[in-house]
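okkk here we go again. third time trying to get the zinc ion bound version out, last two times i messed up the smiles copy paste (missing a bracket lol). double checked this time i swear
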Amino acid sequence: MAAEKEYDLIIRNGWLITMDAAGTRYPSADIAVENGKISAIGSSLPGSGKEEIDAKGNVVLPGLVDAHMHMTLLRGIGDDLPLMRWLYEVMFPKDAQIQARHIHAAAIMNQAELIRGGVTTFLDIFRFPSESAAIAEQSGLRGVFCPQIIDEPAGAGETLESNLAFIEAWKDRVPERLYTWFGPHAPYSNFPETYAKIAEYAEHYDIGYHTHICETEDEVRQIKEKYGKSSVKLLDDVGALNPRFSVAHGVHLSPEDIELLAERGVGVVHNPSSNMKLASGVAPIPELFAAGVKVGLGTDSNLSNNNLDMFEEMRIAAFLQKLYRKDPSVLPCEQVLRMATMGSASCLGMDHMIGSLEVGKRGDIIIMDMHQPHLYPLLPEPNTNVIEQLVYSASAADVWTTIVEGRVLMHERQVRTLDWAAAQDLVVEMAQDLISRSDIWRRLGREA
Ligand SMILES: [Zn+2]
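finally!!
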């Protein structure tokens, strides 16, 4: 008699929203993970799992992909300022004072928040990436780390040298889960030559790079005055636009910029909450889709959002376009859910391995607790409203289980891989330390 098949993990009886190309859904199915990959999907799968989870009545989704965030420590500080004042008077002076221990505390807070909110892959562009990567080694999340290089003002960020040192130290440490990229901050804080060098290095290492682009009208004007062209054209002229590259924001893009991004295969990560809070503007998302650009979704940082809730980000992405276009049919909910899964995955060059629930892809899976009053009435297949409930009514707090490569990072809302309760005092202590070191209260015109 053949031995019974044993998987590492089986989730049984879930309502599977696969987000595959056909948008396949299974009203009740099992999904099994073996050696980090989805190995079977079907009804009443024979065999057993080392861990089995009954998801009856709940929704099983691919893990969400936050394709642009920063491992920042502070939150609720320096709010209500315009972007360039916020950056140059508060954030850059603060960033220049950041030490590794601050990022250590920030990474515990942020990664606990991501796990609780059903994010399984994130892209972090910020300082001391080794600290954040070390926490990710423990948290189990999939991470892309982009040391935030700033040429001007000097000292406010990482440098090309520190970025290269980070890549050398971490590139092979946790293969196919922790990724080392380049993170030039923006065309107004980096020289075009820096982008040119990075494009070459990225090809050499066969890795990606990420930047902020066309975030505000100020930037567009500055770059135009300095270089006589748009930020997108500027980076194309130094050979930096290609499929390895993904850009955040893309609020103020001309039709020519959009065409260039599409032609070169550059992904654009939409950050609607941050763009609204900093009054940056409304990104041309329908135009980007129409041009065939890869479009993903990101939360941006806790300083400009002020949370890492991808469900809220999806809802705001949809609402913002509808209001701005005065057309409620723009950006329907299924398209928004696709942005947060496959769209973000393609911006990271990972659409072959994550972003949908398909046999052979990584076991990055979340389970949503659908038994809450704000998610009712939840109508059964085939005329279901399940995607509507997920995008327009759900929040990070409804995530019940978070799994990466078949490893259960959180179940029944209990995070298993990070001790958030033990880290709370440290986060406050480090935040106070960073605030006083960078003299933030005086900069904001308050008593120290
Ligand atoms: Zn950002």
